[in-house]
Amino acid sequence: MRFGGIIALGGVSFAVGRGQICGLIGPNGSGKTTLFNCISGIYRHSRGDILFEGQSLSGLPRHRMAALGIGRTFQNVALFDSMTVRDNMLVGAHHLGRSGFAANALRLPGPRREEAQARGKLPELLDLLDLRAVADMAVGGMPFGTRKRVELARALIGAPKLLLLDEPAGGLNHGEVEELERLLRLIRAHFDLSILLVEHHMNLVMRVSDQVVALEFGMKIADGTPGQVRNEPEVIRAYLGE
Ligand code: ADP
């Protein structure tokens, strides 16, 4: 991935196993967000390829990626404050659903079926993410940790096979990070999905990930179990800046 003359990502290659949690780490500017944006189709990489279940994602429109089963959250929680938790989740079903914007706008049968499926999944997700008590309350003014859970629920309602989480622990306090760790394990076990996690909270990444990939200057410097990556001299050097 190039921006003008800058190679933001070059020669980064790794695989995420089915049902695994893969943590993506690296100092600021190492290319984590760029990689996420390439995988979810926001950026178009100039070389290389990204495969999902053997199929190339290069050049696919974003709604097709959602249809294949790739969901994501964003660093800055963008919920609709005046809408209830329940309705915010259903918005996720439209945005991450199986059809494009045009089909939704035209109210074709596909989107209606998606909405019905999403409504069917609501009770399970409300329970799993401990949101049932606030399901019919407006999201505005809710504690940050609750909003993060709504955002997770909104991503999950699209039934992703791969969930891209962009700094889910950002802004959370210690207790909320522990709660997030519990939720990530629960989600993975419950839905049999894979998670790619960009996260600065190193303890969380190391505890929750099956695999950790470390980037620096747009290149992969380590890839392995948390124990392996934590002890990798290149990673220690990158973080300590030696
Ligand atoms: P990280 O998420 O690891 O902090 P980024 O992916 O944001 O890193 O940035 C990787 C590199 O790509 C940086 O050098 C950054 O300046 C550059 N970059 C990212 N996005 C853009 C953009 N839209 N235009 C130009 N350069 C960019």
UniProtKB/TrEMBL annotation:
Stored Gene3D superfamilies: P-loop containing nucleotide triphosphate hydrolases (3.40.50.300)
Gene Ontology molecular-function annotations: ATP binding; ATP hydrolysis activity
InterPro entries (UniProt xref): AAA+_ATPase, ABC_AA/LPS_Transport, ABC_transporter-like_ATP-bd, BCA_ABC_TP_C, P-loop_NTPase
Domain ABC transporter: 1-242
Keywords: ATP-binding, Nucleotide-binding, Transport
Gene Ontology CC, one term: plasma membrane
Protein's name in the database: ABC transporter ATP-binding protein
